[in-house]
């Protein structure tokens, strides 16, 4: 089998597609293929390869799906199938993390595929892109409600990056998003509960964790609740994302130094929780923790964890049974903890609706409100740069507006403003 480029598109020249396919498996047992298209990659000069995984399928099902997929790709393919190929390739090459790839697949499934199923890339014009984005803004959400500008902005840049990738590889003749203005997303800002409510929540979580650790008759449900409480405290006291907290290994908890090494993140792949790379390269970091959290993990949890059975230092730190915890199970545990706290503390406004990720926002917001250095907080959170931190938390940083007001007073010659 061979392929050639004609008119800016890769076209098949016959023979058996299956000859190009070799089924392999990820560490989690998910079948995948990465066949060569027989033409050089413009970026590297090496043979161009595409990637596709088939979670939840048997080897026979995966090979059948791979054959149909590669046939569509080499014949040009419709746009949704090629976008799916681009998403898989970005994840396989490390250009996008698991969370980003999952979000892209969701955008493709919900908004791009229904609109452009059967459309080839060369059939999509700039007007088509504009019309799609306008339709999504007006009535693309549930029950005919419009989507947020943030979501449509994500669709725009996903299509832009994908068309550029397809164009570079001869799978599309142009980039129809070029020259179009993406919908400007709403300003992302975080309004945490009051400081008093946050302090009360933290104290309650520590108390609940201590109670569960002291319970010698704790059953599986109690251990599950304890793991959720520990993960919540790691998020609140160290600013970790949920996947990062669940991706901590035994070796990542410092013994002599009070710190956590963030070097991986848990995601679901093929129906199983697996540990993979962090969201970005800057997300890999070492985070110092206070004495209370360190004592809870090293002196309280580690002796109890060893009772689960023999585990090496590369095994999960926060785990009910020694395997990686599914994020959905920990979120469910958090919802139970949150509801119990809200009933016990009805005056703690704003806590009853907190998502697990909001615990990380609480950590950052309170640090910055206290005057902590922006660069240090940004590094602690694993943000790519301080601009991300400022965009989300700039409104809680004290002093900036007061300095502007003082400068105005000096300019006007007001008494005492020198």
Fold and architecture overview:
This protein has helices at residues 59-74, 79-92, 98-116, 126-139, 149-168, 195-214, 220-238, 242-246, 291-306, 327-344, 356-369, 374-381, 386-393, 400-411, and strands spanning 3-6, 9-12, 24-25, 31-33, 36-40, 47-49, 52-53, 259-262, 265-269, 272-276, 285-288. It is mainly alpha-helical. Strand 9 (265-269) and strand 10 (272-276) form a beta hairpin. The longest helix has 20 residues, at 149-168. Mean pLDDT is 83; it is low at 1-15.
Enumerate the spans where pLDDT stays under 50 for 5 or more consecutive residues. Answer: 1-15
Largest sheet: 3 strands, antiparallel
Main sheet: which strands, in order across? 3-4-7
Estimate the helix proportion, in percent: 40-55%
The mean pLDDT is 83
Q: What structural category do the secondary elements indicate?
A: mainly alpha
Concise synopsis of the structure shown:
The protein has 418 residues and is mostly helical. It contains 14 helices and 11 strands. The strands form 5 sheets. Strands 3-4-7 form a 3-stranded antiparallel beta sheet.
Provide the fold topology.
Layout lengths: L2 E4 L2 E4 L11 E2 L5 E3 L2 E5 L6 E3 L2 E2 L5 H16 L4 H14 L5 H19 L9 H14 L9 H20 L26 H20 L5 H19 L3 H5 L12 E4 L2 E5 L2 E5 L8 E4 L2 H16 L20 H18 L11 H14 L4 H8 L4 H8 L6 H12 L7
Antiparallel strand pairs: 1-2, 3-4, 4-7, 5-6, 8-11, 9-10
Helix pairs in contact: 2-3, 2-5, 3-5, 4-5, 6-7, 6-9, 7-10, 7-11, 12-13
């Amino acid at each position: 089998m061979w392929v050639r480029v004609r008119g800016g598109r890769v076209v098949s020249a016959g023979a058996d597609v299956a000859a190009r396919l070799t089924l392999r498996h990820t560490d989690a047992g998910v079948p995948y293929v990465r066949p060569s298209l027989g033409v050089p990659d413009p970026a590297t000069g090496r043979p161009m390869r595409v990637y596709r995984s088939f979670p939840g399928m048997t080897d026979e099902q995966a090979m059948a799906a791979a054959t149909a997929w590669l046939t569509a790709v080499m014949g040009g393919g419709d746009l949704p199938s090629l976008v799916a190929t681009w998403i898989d390739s970005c994840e396989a090459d490390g250009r996008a993390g698991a969370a980003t790839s999952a979000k892209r697949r969701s955008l493709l499934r919900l908004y791009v595929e229904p609109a452009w199923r059967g459309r080839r890339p060369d059939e999509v014009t700039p007007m088509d892109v504009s019309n799609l984005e306008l339709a999504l803004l007006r009535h693309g959400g549930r029950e005919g409600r419009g989507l947020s500008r943030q979501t449509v902005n994500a669709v725009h840049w996903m299509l832009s990056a994908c068309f550029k990738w397809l164009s570079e590889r001869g799978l599309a003749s142009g980039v129809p998003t070029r020259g179009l203005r993406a919908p400007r997303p709403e300003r992302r800002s975080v309004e945490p509960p009051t400081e008093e409510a946050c302090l009360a929540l933290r104290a309650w979580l520590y108390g609940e964790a201590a109670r569960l650790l002291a319970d010698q008759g704790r059953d599986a449900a109690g251990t599950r609740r304890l793991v959720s409480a520990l993960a919540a405290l790691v998020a609140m006291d160290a600013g970790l994302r949920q996947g990062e907290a669940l991706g901590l290994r035994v070796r990542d908890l410092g013994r002599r130094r009070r710190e956590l090494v963030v070097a991986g993140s848990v995601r679901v792949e093929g129906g199983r929780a697996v540990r993979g790379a962090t969201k970005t390269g800057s997300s890999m970091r070492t985070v110092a923790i206070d004495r209370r959290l360190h004592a809870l993990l090293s002196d309280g949890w580690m002796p109890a964890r060893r009772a689960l059975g023999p585990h090496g230092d590369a095994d999960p730190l926060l785990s009910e049974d020694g395997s990686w915890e599914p994020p959905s199970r920990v979120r469910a545990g958090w919802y139970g903890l949150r509801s119990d706290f809200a009933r016990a503390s009805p005056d703690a406004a704003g806590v009853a609706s907190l998502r697990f990720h909001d615990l990380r926002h609480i950590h950052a917001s309170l640090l910055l409100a206290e005057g902590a250095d922006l660069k240090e907080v940004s590094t602690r959170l694993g943000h790519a740069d301080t601009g991300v931190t400022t965009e989300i938390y700039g409104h809680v940083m004290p002093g900036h507006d007061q300095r502007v007001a003082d400068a105005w007073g000096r300019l006007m010659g007001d008494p005492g403003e020198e």
